[in-house]
């Protein structure tokens, strides 16, 4: 606002604004990263807390990881020991603040400690869809997948739902990846970190047929080749999936309508 007023008054007075002054004003408007306090990630192997570990590895930022290898109950006890009214994973302690919800935690870390990284610029054509996928990952995709999982554990479907079902929410993701290489557009972004967990759930729990989604399969291969993703698996899932939910038993395609 101040820059606009000063520039307008200068134009009215017939005074030109020096290029160096304009550049200085532009530089002052850029957001500098805040000094990052200690970050502690409370973690369960194979769960959403992997997102935060992965993000910190991508950004090459320091963090402490709290969990008991191979023991989900003991890992959860560490979360409860914080005395927070919402004991869930991920729980991340940044300085003296306790935060939950992986998407919000990612937003805070990027906005404060890595501005301009891991997301398209706000004036980019890809910024709106990037923000959409950041929220879609939990708001539509994971919510639908786990809802169907609970229902289908007792009664596996024999026909497609007329409403939005697991296949539909995954197909929407597949269609996007037919047009763009990443969920953030042309470049890897935090939206890809958010989308990996629910898309793994969809195929891993047999809610959708992995062979129907070649674009997602190709995208996963690119993800799995990233050094930061490999490092995340090394430190946060050293023994593979622990206590995984059982996959549903879908009827053979020949028996479905």
Put the structure in a nutshell:
The protein has about 260 residues and is mainly alpha-helical. It contains ten helices and four strands; from the N terminus they run ααβαβαββαααααα.
Write up what this structure looks like.
This protein has 257 residues and is mainly α. Among the domains are: 39-113, Glutaredoxin, CATH 3.40.30; 127-225, Glutathione S-transferase Yfyf (Class Pi), Chain A, domain 2. Helices cover 49% and strands 6% of the residues. The protein has ten helices and four strands; from the N terminus they run ααβαβαββαααααα. It has helices spanning 2-12, 19-29, 50-59, 72-80, 102-113, 127-152, 166-177, 190-204, 214-224, 227-236, and strands spanning 39-42, 64-66, 91-94, 97-100. A four-stranded mixed sheet has the order 2-1-3-4. A hairpin with a 2-residue loop joins β3 (91-94) and β4 (97-100). α6 runs parallel beside α8 (190-204) and α7 crosses α9. The radius of gyration is 22 Å and the shape is globular. Mean pLDDT is 87; it is low at 1-29 and 251-257.
What is the name of the CATH topology of the domain at 127-225? Glutathione S-transferase Yfyf (Class Pi), Chain A, domain 2
Mean pLDDT, rounded to whole units? Answer: 87
Structural class: mainly alpha
Oligomeric nature of the chains: single chain
Largest sheet: 4 strands, mixed
Helix count, DSSP H or I runs of 4 or more residues: 10
State Rg. Answer: 22 Å
The CATH architecture of the domain at 127-225 would be: Up-down Bundle
Distance linking N and C termini:
61 Å
In helices, the fraction of residues equals 40-55%
What characteristic shape results from the CA principal axes?
A: globular
What ranges have pLDDT less than 50 throughout 5 or more consecutive residues?
1-29, 251-257
Count of β-strands: 4
């Amino acid at each position: 606002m101040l820059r606009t007023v000063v520039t307008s008054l200068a134009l009215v007075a017939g005074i030109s604004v020096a290029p160096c002054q304009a550049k200085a004003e532009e530089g002052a408007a850029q957001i500098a990263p805040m000094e990052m306090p200690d970050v502690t990630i409370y973690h369960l192997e194979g769960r959403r807390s992997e997102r935060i570990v992965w993000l910190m590895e991508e950004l090459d930022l320091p963090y402490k990881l709290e969990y008991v290898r191979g023991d989900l109950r003991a890992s959860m006890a560490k979360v409860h020991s914080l005395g927070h009214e919402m004991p869930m994973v991920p729980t991340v302690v940044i300085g003296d603040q306790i935060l939950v919800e992986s998407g919000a935690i990612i937003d805070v870390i990027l906005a404060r400690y890595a501005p301009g990284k891991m997301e398209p610029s706000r004036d980019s054509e890809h910024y709106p869809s990037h923000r959409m996928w950041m929220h879609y990952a939990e708001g539509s995709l994971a919510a639908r997948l786990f809802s169907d999982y609970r229902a289908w554990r007792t009664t596996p479907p024999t026909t497609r739902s007329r409403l939005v079902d697991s296949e539909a929410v995954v197909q929407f993701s597949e269609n996007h990846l037919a047009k763009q290489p990443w969920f953030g557009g042309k470049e890897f972004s935090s939206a890809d970190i958010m989308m990996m967990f629910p898309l793994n759930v969809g195929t891993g729990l047999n809610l959708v047929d992995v062979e129907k989604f070649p674009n997602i399969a190709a995208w996963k291969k690119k993800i799995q080749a990233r050094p930061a993703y490999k490092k995340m698996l090394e430190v946060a899932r050293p023994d593979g999936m622990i206590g995984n939910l059982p996959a549903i038993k879908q009827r053979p395609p020949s028996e479905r309508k």
